Prior knowledge:
Helix content is 34%, strand content 19%.
Amino acid sequence: MDLQLISEDVDDIVAIRRHIHAHPELAFEETQTAALVENSLRKYGLEITTGIGKHGVIGALKGRNSDKRSIGLRADMDALPMSEGNELEYASCHPGRMHACGHDGHTAMLLGAAKALGSNPDFEGTVHFIFQPAEEGGEEPRR
């Protein structure tokens, strides 16, 4: 893979990470993050499956001989129920919620990998990009 290709996308990946950081969603509430992930993966040309564990998204990218082998790459999407104590320009817009866990970075990096591989799928097998909701949350709240 051409490292130049990845380096050209760094600003986009940082912007995605900062957007997710500013708009954290708790477990089982990741609607905006899931939509961002789904739209990005569609733009990158991946096959999409949504609704896994409520808001989970999986993107599949097929290379040569895609039925012979596969690998899964995973990132979490949910935030934690805690207040952010900094004044960054991309600090949480939602009091009592923040990405102290790094899931904003995980999601952005995995989207970056999907974009890079999607632009040149010169590999054998299938890559499954798995975006997991509710990693921090345990059980879904009862209504």
